[in-house]
Fold Methionine aminopeptidase.
Amino acid sequence: MVKRKRRRVRRISTPPPSGPIEAGLISPRRSVPTGIGRPEYALDGEPSSRTSRAVRTEDELARMRVSGRLAAEVLNEVCAAVEVGITTDELDRIGHEAAVARDSYPSPLNYRGFPKSLCTSVNEVICHGIPDSRRLTDGDIINIDITVFHDGVHGDTSCTVLVGDVDEESRRLVRVTRAAMHAGIGAVAPGARVQDIGRAIEAEVDRHGGRFGIVREFIGHGIGDQFHTSLQIPHYFDPRATTVLEPGMTFTIEPMITVGPAEVWMWDDDWTALTVSGQRTAQFEHTMVVTETGVELLTMPADGPPAEERFAEAVASTTAN
Ligand code: MF3
Ligand code: CO
Ligand code: CO
């Protein structure tokens, strides 16, 4: 979700490992069978503006465990299809059909007018990349962001995947970004504050001596019967984020980390967010609930590891830091 704009200008000298991403063609809108329950914005693109409670009921939580699991399954399916030469539109088709096969509505579809069923953010695209006719090429990195709406609630999760032979700096970026998400998750406990999450993420990223930046314009969010609730989860230390975490609160942690400074610009499609520097960026995301003792990840498959474990493995096995 979008927050404020901020400008910080710094230069780094190493050129990015590939040329700039170019937009492709966007295919016609995919349809969702009439029997599948839809979120309130499916028809007119306008999400509800009513305020949603931060704490879920047991019934809502039970349903969110299901929608979270389904989102994790769809994410695994799409990540497994990533290969050199596939178009992001084809990944959208796979994700759309995987959601529909699970009696779920792909939440991005027509959310504030978004034209596709998932987000595909390649190389210097920070988030909200629109699937199109561009083919993945050897050495790309791609974030796949899946949200599904099932039985009245959303589950939201994303993973960055390596395409073919990826350069060492990009692999390091992906590894640091995943570690940053887990540092944030590790700060979640009843009685902790929202600002503790961003503080933990910052500490993790800062271990690398200013080589990486944290995007501030897009943040984690409360989630439940609405895709994005008013609860905001910055991925940097924000002294104003004093909200105390309580059991039953559900939200995402989804840090976007950049090589070099984290300045953002947008394509005129009003969705695609990119680094000003042209340097690469990565992201991982889970949906979670605060428990009596800590945190429970909701976006986990029923069996087997989540995408971040399956598809970051090649990254984990490279040299430390
Ligand atoms: N899944 C994204 C998030 O993590 C939101 C995508 S909104 C869309 O919050 F409209 F671009 F799909
Ligand atoms: Co999200
Ligand atoms: Co998401």
